[in-house]
What does this fold into?
Amino acid sequence: MRLLAVETSCDDSAVAILDETGTVLAELVSTQMVHEKHGGVVPEIASRLHMTVLPKLIREVLEKSGTSLDSIDVFAATAGPGLTGSLLVGLSWTKAAAFALGKPFLGINHLSAHLHIHHSSPVEFPAVALLVSGGHTMIFHMLSWNECLLLGTTRDDAAGEAFDKTAKLMGLGYPGGRIIDELAEFGNPDSVKLPSPLGNKRKPEFSFSGLKTAFLYFIRDRLKENKDFIKQNRNDLCASIQRTIVEILTDKLEKAFLQTGISEIALAGGVSANSGLRERIKWLAKKHGWKVFIPEISLSTDNAAMIAMTGYLKFLAGEFAGLDSSPLARLPI
Ligand code: KG4
Ligand code: ZN
It folds into this structure.
């Protein structure tokens, strides 16, 4: 059995092929660098680039895995949540291939796929998962891979957006999370005191827009006195932002642990690549006796291996989708 999975929910085109044992035979991710100069993803450009890149990427992954297109037995693609135009490209290509070859098609929930990256790890349920990406910040009480109760989410921006938008204010480029992470290593995290909105709330709910605004006002005032303030203090600013975001996330994770008593903790999504977050979670694991599951960095950010793995389980369960399935910008887990 060969399953071909396609991911195009945002600005990464990704393809993976998986075999009947659930092993990924080949996978590739192509990241669209063009958005960097716009300081964020431009949806129209993203969907057009998926159109150009996806067929080549599929050819390369087929070659890498020694598979021909007509020997693919099942096709899977991200159905949402994500940018509608981007989703449409991956979904349309994959549904067309399934239709032409008379093979089944599976529509995959991107958020559920991020969590499925831990499927081959010895996670015991119930577990608590922190899913942190460019579009989502969610804490789940997981009863199984498919039964996820939402304990809390963000009221406004996602954690990844907080990284990306503060990086943009400093002129650091896009996506800013990884850049802040790299520079934070050389800075003092105590140099700027930033707010932690909803910090005292018992519910593990998040809000990041206030942090971004406070940072904007802070640097605007400093720039009035010294036009080189950002250049001279870049590492300290990055370290302070990173420390604040990591503390907000991990305080809420601790609240979820205290609320549920669950000590199996899984981390997923692009922000889980953050070194400060990974370190702090490991430290908390020692403090509370948590068993933590942290994805490899390449599997934290968007990839098609997670789509393939989720598709594989749906395939085994016989949960196929119709060829009339459309992209869904919002798709609850
Ligand atoms: O999961 P992902 O690849 O795409 C979405 O589903 O959104 O997450 C992308 C987000 C971006 O906001 C990016 O800045 C952030 O993950 N990110 C990081 C790091 N690497 C990626 N944030 C902080 N530190 C990193 N090392
Ligand atoms: Zn994602």
About this structure: The mean pLDDT is 95. The radius of gyration is 20 Å.
